[in-house]
Please model this.
Amino acid sequence: MDKEITIPSGYPFSGKQLVEVISPDLLQSRIKSIGQEISKHYKNKIPIIIGVLNGAFLFMADLVRNLNIEYEVDFIKIDSYGDDTKSSGTVRLLKDISADITDRHVIIVEDIVDTGLSLNFLKHRLEEAEPASLKFVSCLYKSEVAKLDFDIDWIGFTIDERYFVGYGLDLKQLFRGLPGIYAVNH
Ligand code: PRP
Model:
């Protein structure tokens, strides 16, 4: 895959440059080591791993393939951006989890923590069910932007405030399938 891609005409934001900032190899090696840490942390436990749709679908799939413990999976779908490139400021719950998480060890998997709005929402919502523990893993973290009053337990990469696509992240629902992370240059 090219390290620089010009969005072709006919697509949203045509003419803008996508520039690779995290290669597929770097992503995979970081995910491998996070997988090892999580496996160690949950040894002899069976956590429920909850992916936040849509963005986390690729990260979640790669992360669980790097675990050497038993686990269950579930998904929750929320929306804070719509099709915009800026957070709308509110979070909508579009699909709730199916699992009963009371007294269970729960891991939330996000593709990106940007403003922190989504993760704050998820934390408060899932805590109502009184899980035995609740931890968070995010592939990307905008450290200068995110406002969280708790720590993210595992972070893949800390990134700047630009808009990013690829590896699950979209621009108007496109470019989720790029194997690396690309910055959208204006
Ligand atoms: C993205 C991303 C996170 C959230 C992070 O989801 O997947 O869930 O935004 O942003 P925040 O920290 O500012 O809340 P989005 O609402 O774009 O939906 P998607 O996952 O379907 O792309």
In short: The chain has a mean pLDDT of 95. The first strand starts at residue 4 and ends at 6.
